[in-house]
TrEMBL record:
Belongs to the choline/ethanolamine kinase family. Its EC number is 2.7.1.82. GO terms for molecular function: ethanolamine kinase activity. Transmembrane segments: none annotated. It comes from the Eukaryota. It comes from Dekkera bruxellensis (Brettanomyces custersii). GO terms for cellular component: cytoplasm. The lineage of its organism: Eukaryota, Fungi, Dikarya, Ascomycota, Saccharomycotina. This is ethanolamine kinase. One of its GO terms (biological process) is phosphatidylethanolamine biosynthetic process. PANTHER family: CHOLINE/ETHANOALAMINE KINASE, ETHANOLAMINE KINASE.
Amino acid sequence: MPSTYCLLSNGGLHFLPYHNSNSTDISLTRSDIGENTTGTKDSGQSMPLPSQSAFGIASSSSLPGMVPKDSSSRIFSTIFTSKARNQYPQQTSSIMGISSNSVASTVSSSCQSCVSNADWPVSGGKQDDYSLSKSRSTSPSVAKEVEKCCAHSIYLPDRYIEPSESSNQKLQVRQMLLEIFPEWGNNEDFIELHELTGGITNMLLKCTYKGPENVQNGYKTVLIRTYGRGTGLLIDRDREFVSHLVLNSYNLAPKVFARFGNGLVYGFIEGRALHFDELSNPSVYPFIASRLGQWHRTVRVKVIEEGLRRMRLEFRQSEKVEVSKKRPGNIWELIKGWIDILPQIKGLVAVCDKNQDLQQVRMDAKDPESIQLTLKQILSRELEWLASEIGDCSPQVAAHSDLLCGNIIIPSELSRELEEAGRNSKISTRHLHFDTNPISFIDYEYMMPGPRAFDISNHFQEWQGFACDKSLIPKPVRTNQLLRKWCMSYLQKDGSEVTEVMIDDLIDEISLYYGMPGFYWGIWAGIQSTISLIDFDYGGYSGQRLVEYWNWKRWYLKEKGSRLYKCVK
């Protein structure tokens, strides 16, 4: 795979090749421009531009980026930045060099949140990809917001970290971190590693620099997450990476510093993850609802999809992989793909057998060898029924799809208040003086275009915890006052009025998707039960989650006849 510099801009991902050199300057050239221009020193990288650039280099004077100093690995460096080409000087025919130190601070200072509901068209031509389209450039408000957006990362495809703790793993981690953060010096002993827990598929390391060097960019603590064994069957890592970059550009995710062969390096958010019984705390859930509402209104699905398309096109071609290979484009396609690879799980067969009265297709297998096929057949027909019944009943958004307690971070001030008062007790947060919503969402592995009501329902199902205590899940009915308050916070935007009718409609919408998370995670856990090395009862969990779907379907078929749903046929 050739070393490449990537530029993700306005929903498009662009590429410039580069290689290592012993020079202390960076030289960027184009064969059709002429004279080379040397740029910022202290990087040790040389980056020749291709003859046909991904955007108009001739009309650009600078390109922010980040390149590790003295790197010996092949690196992909990506940046998500939204600046109009016409904002750069027109007379220059070169691009300035990129320094891992000077540019990092420049990019950091210019990276502001980009929260705009503008529906931005994406340019299609190569030379003009980096410029605003005509319809967008005529809108000053859009151009102003576009200018604020940026996020960047480096890609180390040849770096792999052992998933299990060992001395060799620690050495690999420290060496990689010194490559990513040259300002940390070259002494591996100054890097402290601490393994964190909370997830059930990946390994998570907290890495802290303890050395005497002055860290100019201020990042002394980062997280490293390695992908769990076999999770590539379930998770699109390209999508996760692009989604993280886009979220960071909206200031909705921490910086992603690097992607390596089997994981990510990203920013550490001070605070702690919630406990599952804190999800319903009246002092906490309004923050969660408000943040999720902001997420669904702000993040543009088309920006992620276009960046993902270009990334796959570029890298899969270089790897001689079929570019047109079908990848799931939404939550429905993802579930279908999971069903196709679902192995024979006795627990799932038993769960289906107990609910034959609800099935779209009856189990008619007469010998054990046909059970696996029959299980897939049952679940495929259920998915078809589910999609035809409620598939159009909720707007499609960039869904987080895994909003459990471990993926919601609260600051230490709020944590102390909760611990002192009791995790289920209501507290006053006024004296904490939060200027903005203190809640952060992390872990974007399962982020995918999907119905907003699925994302909300999935979060509510997580109130039960891994022990699956169903009594903790809020009932999706209009008379549930907790749910009404939650929906109020979700719908509230910049002081706008939220009517009782709007809340009623959202609760009805949510209730239609209350069975989908059980269906989704039941199939997921069934696959995990055969590939994961983690000490967790995936088989039992799979059966419990699938029961949720059947119970919801029984409730829904009963309610459908007596309850007026606006979208149900």
